[in-house]
Amino acid sequence: MRTSELIFKSRREVPQDAEASSHQLLLRGNYIRRLTSGVYSFLPLGYQVLRRVERIVEEELDRVGASELLLPALHPVEIWRATGRDAKMADVLFGVEGKSGSFVLGPTHEEAVIEAMSPDIESYRDLPKLVYQIQTKFRDEPRARFGLMRTREFIMADGYSFDVDRDTMRASYQRFYEAYQAIFRRVGLKAEPVEADAGSIGGDVNHEFMVASSIGEDHFARCRECGYQANIEAARAGERAGVPVARDIEPVTYSTPNAPGVEIAVKALQAAGAEVEVASMLKSMLLVGEAGQLVLALLPGDRTLNVPRGMRLAEDVEMGDFVKGYIGPQGQSSRVTILADPLVRTRPSWASGANQEGSHTVGLRLGIDFNVDRFENLVVVQDQDPCPHCGAPLELVRSVEVGHTFQLGLTYSGMLAHARFSTVDGQELPYWMGCYGIGVTRVPAVIAQQYGSPEGDAVAWPVEVAPYVVSVVGVGATKDNDVVAVARRLHDLINAGGVSALLEDRDVSTGVAMRDLELIGSPIFCVVGARSLANKMVEIRDRMHDRTTLVPIEKAPAAVIALSRELTSECR
């Protein structure tokens, strides 16, 4: 390929809303173009990167025995109602009204794949089945940002497994899990598999594949001592030692008008002469379980609640006799389950709401003034919290999610009467499922963030995703001199050797040419210069390791091809 034939026009200026360096680079390098907020066109260079990522996904999933299919993006809303996810995911669903009914633009495909596969799974002899697709998805994100990192239309590779029982489901899960590790190695990303929360997808065991990134919107907790890793929703801290209850004090109630929040309540109590701080306040937060039961969650005032699965914060209309902003654990009705984080054991007494408007109580003692029905990890972990496995300090790592794998079990098949197979003894049972997703359009942005310059004006793509592995450029070239002839010959020989090469043949200055080639991002540059040519040498730049070598002209194609293979092997 020649640069004169590319659809390419580099940009010096980028929109001010392009905050991330990866977003700036993909715009400057003519990889993508914004159509509207959260929706992008892939231009030829960007589409080449995207297709290379897709091919790696296809190769690795084919290798573990999965078969590729393609499911519709447009779903009848009835299949979503059957699993209750029309309500559960209502905040991100794009609804479409058609002449023949109501539809959903699929944000995920669990229901659709069951509809497609269930007629072919009648007996235990038909299992296991592993399938995958690469398909466009739609989510009505409230805040699209960072270019391809968070969009409203995106491409995902999603896999699904169907098995006879839990053990075979776990075996299928392991096959996808290992395939995902291979995929991320090949695209050049160090993706850490961490324990995760299932969210709206559901299921039991699941892992997110997280890449450390300065622009990540997620975090995961990591223990360097024992290797424990979990995302911020699933991470749990180890217990700290408890302290004796303060038996030599009695609770005192203070008037705190217009002070319903923790911080404002602390100021009001301090003004009234009480010795309190945010960390000694007890948050008492009313939750509602799936069956409508009331749960009062207790945690320190300086920590954030991690709402337990199957529960949600109570709405104002559900508060009943509870005084919003002034709830305390003391004197609660037996119809309310009191759930506390283990940190509630780490202080001799607490301050909390007095269960009456405009009042707080200081000196509440666990086991004397209030009781707890059950202790459970309720707080979002913080840096230096103890690891739940070994007690060493945890660290939080800012990161981007690039993949997610789920052991769904019977989450969907158990709700759908037709998701059944006949066992060896003639029973009709639901099959066990797993699902597995990779954000294909997000991957190029994560790679660009990792391998691009902080200024967003240069990148060295990993060899397996680069639009062109080698860029050949003549320094001091004119139309008919030896530099041009040698550059053309090297370009042709490298291509003939099976390595994609791009020849810089435009009538532009060397500075402009090199600036543009750094945006195009070949990991290898082959530079033909009049000075080196006098010594019958060519300069080869390995941009992944920032090293340059001079090789004889006749050996240059073989040296470039060997370097390409070396860079490929590093990612496998």
Please give the structural blueprint.
Elements: H1 21-28, E1 32-36, E2 39-42, H2 44-63, E3 67-68, E4 74-76, H3 77-83, H4 85-88, E5 94-98, E6 101-105, H5 110-117, E7 129-138, E8 153-163, H6 166-186, E9 192-195, E10 206-212, E11 218-222, E12 229-231, E13 252-255, H7 262-271, E14 282-289, E15 294-300, E16 311-313, E17 336-340, E18 350-353, E19 359-364, E20 374-375, E21 395-409, E22 420-422, E23 428-430, E24 432-439, H8 442-451, E25 470-475, H9 482-496, E26 501-503, H10 510-520, E27 524-529, H11 530-534, E28 537-542, E29 547-552, H12 556-570
Parallel strand pairs: 3-7, 15-17, 17-20, 25-26, 25-27
Antiparallel strand pairs: 1-2, 4-6, 5-6, 7-8, 8-24, 9-10, 10-21, 11-12, 11-21, 13-19, 14-15, 14-16, 18-19, 21-24, 22-23, 27-28, 28-29
Question: Brief overview, please?
Answer:
23% of the residues lie in helices and 28% in strands.
| The CATH topology of the largest domain | BirA Bifunctional Protein, domain 2
- How many helices? The count is 12
C-alpha-based Rg, rounded: 29 Å
Number of domains: 3
Average pLDDT for all residues: 93
Shape descriptor: globular
CATH homologous superfamily (4th level) name of the largest domain: Bira Bifunctional Protein, Domain 2
What top-tier CATH class of the largest domain fits best?
A: Alpha Beta
Tell how many strands the DSSP assignment holds.
29
Measured between the Cα atoms of the first and last residue, the distance is 27 Å
Low-confidence stretches: none
Assign the structural class, choosing from mainly alpha, mainly beta, alpha/beta, alpha+beta, or little secondary structure: alpha+beta
Strand content: 25-35%
Main sheet: strands, sense, barrel: 9 strands, mixed
User: What is the share of helical residues?
Assistant: 10-25%
CATH architecture of the largest domain: 2-Layer Sandwich
